[in-house]
Amino acid sequence: xxxxxxxxxxxxxxxxxxxxxxxxxxxxxxxxxxxxxxxxxxxxxxxxxxxxxxxxxxxxxxxxxxxxxxxxxxxxxxxxxxxxxxxxxxxxxxxxxxxxxxxxxxxxxxxxxxxxxxxxxxxxxxxxxxxxxxxxxxxxxxxxxxxxxxxxxxxxxxxxxxxxxxxxxxxxxxxxxxxxxxxxxxxxxxxxxxxxxxxxxxxxxxxxxxxxxxxxxxxxxxxxxxxxxxxxxxxxxxxxxxxxxxxxxxxxxxxxxxxxxxxxxxxxxxxxxxxxxxxxxxxxxxxxxxxxxxxxxxxxxxxxxxxxxxxxxxxxxxxxxxxxxxxxxxxxxxxxxxxxxxxxxxxxxxxxxxxx
Length: 356
What we know:
Elements: H1 3-8, E1 25-34, H2 47-61, E2 73-76, H3 82-90, H4 96-99, E3 106-109, E4 115-119, E5 125-132, H5 136-151, E6 158-159, E7 163-164, E8 176-183, H6 185-189, H7 193-202, E9 205-208, E10 221-226, H8 234-262, H9 264-280, H10 286-301, H11 310-319, H12 322-329, H13 335-355
Antiparallel strand pairs: 1-5, 1-8, 2-3, 3-4, 4-5, 6-7, 8-10, 9-10
Helix pairs in contact: 3-12, 9-10, 10-11
């Protein structure tokens, strides 16, 4: 596997698979924060210490992988161009924080990109496992297998009372963040989501944008995750999140049916106008493109638009981000240049899909 594949293919192989409730739940994710016992945490560590962590983990994982997983590809941040790092962020393979530690950060990636292990981010290790659709248990099983595999090679910072020790106190305990990425256009259109979010927060969960904390919910895509990691088991956290997500799925479906029953013409008009914008625009900003792509995906899911797969929308949501646009251009682009290239790419991709 070459680095070029990771930064040129917009759709990760795991994303092409259909998962349960994939019309609403794009992906399920489990992330585990872990630190090595003998080293200072990355947020205060010296470059020398961080280099020791990198070397030790690279040496102990090189050419190896858990059972059933191809050998993981090691990618050092200091060997990447800024646009390549941005592409990995846009594909959710690394966090924006990891790019801040480019002198001593790295990521280990599986062949299908469903497994990502960041080294020297906020913690020594951030283990991420992704599954298509609503499959939190599957993602948890994969994360536990990776966690056990690494723990056979290194000793974690662990306290009998507090659990896994992490840089941020909010991660102490299980060190686990369970999350799902959801497409909730109907709840946004009917303004029901604004009433639901406070109730979700009261249950110890948080609703964030597409790239996590501090990010905007582009294209009506929201990330729902747990906030509490101490005093609960991994299974309890997943079960609580599962219950809330199941209710959100039910309410989103009800909102979609309500729009079809009571505002069908207005809904169709919105969807087809957005489709026309994508097919004909010569210049389009990222926010408008995301909004139109969300509308068209809703049209596909409701059977109002035929001949296009959901994957084309998933692909375009990533392809039209700044990092990918500049990666394809092979050059740094200004905002206006990106908007022109974004419009051209969308037109060409939709035309290709239509012809096929």
